[in-house]
Design a protein that fits this description.
Blueprint: E1 5-14, E2 17-24, H1 34-44, H2 47-53, E3 63-68, E4 77-82, E5 87-88, H3 92-104, E6 114-121, E7 124-133, E8 136-143, E9 148-158, E10 162-170, E11 174-179, H4 192-209, E12 223-230, E13 238-244, E14 248-249, H5 255-268, E15 275-278, E16 284-295, E17 298-307, E18 309-319, H6 331-334
Parallel strand pairs: 2-3, 4-6, 11-12, 13-15
Antiparallel strand pairs: 1-2, 1-18, 3-4, 4-5, 6-7, 7-8, 8-17, 9-10, 10-11, 12-13, 13-14, 15-16, 16-17
């Protein structure tokens, strides 16, 4: 067998949400910061995302994290976050998964019982504390980039649904929070398909009608997630169903959504000492406010989010030069929309 590409990966999941951590096969990417590198990949090197995340090697729920050296003097490593349909500035599950892989594979030295490290995400520095024992990462807490609420009870008109009242906040990714109970949902597994379809139905109208503008970095000014919120079922504070393009649920409570929700609760004066978010699978993230700051002239909180991750496999992804499929999507699992990248990159 000949190979045109060979990519070394470690597969993981954080509270149910899978990530593929790319640890070899890519030496570096042009750019100084992780944001510049992510923008270059999106423009010039998107073959990597297609190869690792699209079929026949990937799947719709999978995201990818490319680990690279960081030029930032405080960072131990950098990572670029690739979702199935986008590049993101920050992701909590991807942070927890990446930190776990770095420590459990020895790419960063593990110190028991607590290892601290700093990762550079495209949205900024993320400070990580990992509880470790017997060579295993038991839990990861990351201090997220500053998070803030931009709107409470904003009106979004959706044909067939009427007027929805949504909260809008940034937690490393922009989220629009929708009351699931008001729409008849409890956020349980049997509702996953209907919630995903409803989120994709709401998304274009939210994009058109809401103002999403990062006060410092215009490249981070896009709405990433529709997040349905419902009362808890297993002892937390609320349930999250985050709809990720192209139309599927985050299996975890979503670290950026938990951060953004903390900013919303803080703005309402309703944030307690901690906030425990449940997923559709009953897994949890626990969040708290670790500090306060400003982003430009906007008041912000610094959330600290805790969750767990597990390594699920080690892979060498290969592209044979005669293989015509470097990655494809079909609407039976990926939903309607433009098809991407079906030709061999050679």
């Amino acid at each position: 067998m000949r190979t045109a590409r060979m990519i070394h990966c470690v597969d993981t999941h954080a509270e149910g949400e899978p990530s593929r951590i790319i640890v070899g096969g890519v030496l570096d990417v042009p750019g100084t910061t992780m944001l510049e590198k992510a923008q270059w990949l999106e423009r010039e090197g998107d073959w990597l995302r297609r190869l690792c995340l699209f079929e026949p090697r990937g799947s719709a729920p999978l995201s990818g994290d490319l680990v690279l050296p960081s030029a930032h003097p405080e960072a131990d490593a950098g990572f670029i976050i690739m979702e199935s349909s986008s590049y993101e500035g920050m992701s909590g599950t991807n942070t927890i998964n990446t930190a776990t892989v770095l420590l459990e594979t020895g790419m960063v030295e593990m110190v028991e019982p607590v290892t601290t490290l700093v990762l550079e995400a495209p949205a900024g520095l993320v400070r990580v504390t990992a509880e470790c024992s017997r060579g295993k990462v038991d839990s990861v807490t990351f201090e997220n980039v500053p998070s803030f609420c931009s709107a409470l009870d904003a009106a979004v008109e959706v044909p067939g649904l009427g007027t929805l009242s949504v909260d809008v906040a940034y937690g490393g990714a922009w989220c629009a929070f929708v009351d699931a109970t008001a729409l008849g949902f409890e956020i349980v597994p049997d509702e996953a398909r209907a919630l995903a379809e409803l989120g994709e139905r709401i998304r274009p109208h939210a994009n058109q009608q809401l103002t999403v503008a990062h006060p410092v970095e215009p490249a981070l000014s896009h709405l990433s997630f529709i997040v349905f919120v419902a009362p808890p079922r297993v002892g937390g504070d609320a349930r999250h169903a985050t709809v990720v393009s192209p139309g599927r649920l985050d299996r975890a409570p979503t670290g950026t959504a938990t951060s953004a929700r903390i900013a919303v609760l803080d703005r309402r004066g309703a944030m307690g000492a901690t906030y425990v978010a449940e997923s559709v699978l009953d897994t949890r993230f626990t969040g708290r406010i670790a500090g306060r700051t400003t982003v430009g002239d906007v008041d912000a909180v610094v959330p600290a989010i805790t969750g767990r991750a597990w390594i699920t496999g080690f892979h060498q992804l290969v592209l044979d030069p005669t293989d015509p499929l470097d990655g494809f999507k079909l609407p039976d699992t990926w939903g309607p929309g433009p098809r991407e990248g079906t030709l061999n990159v050679g």
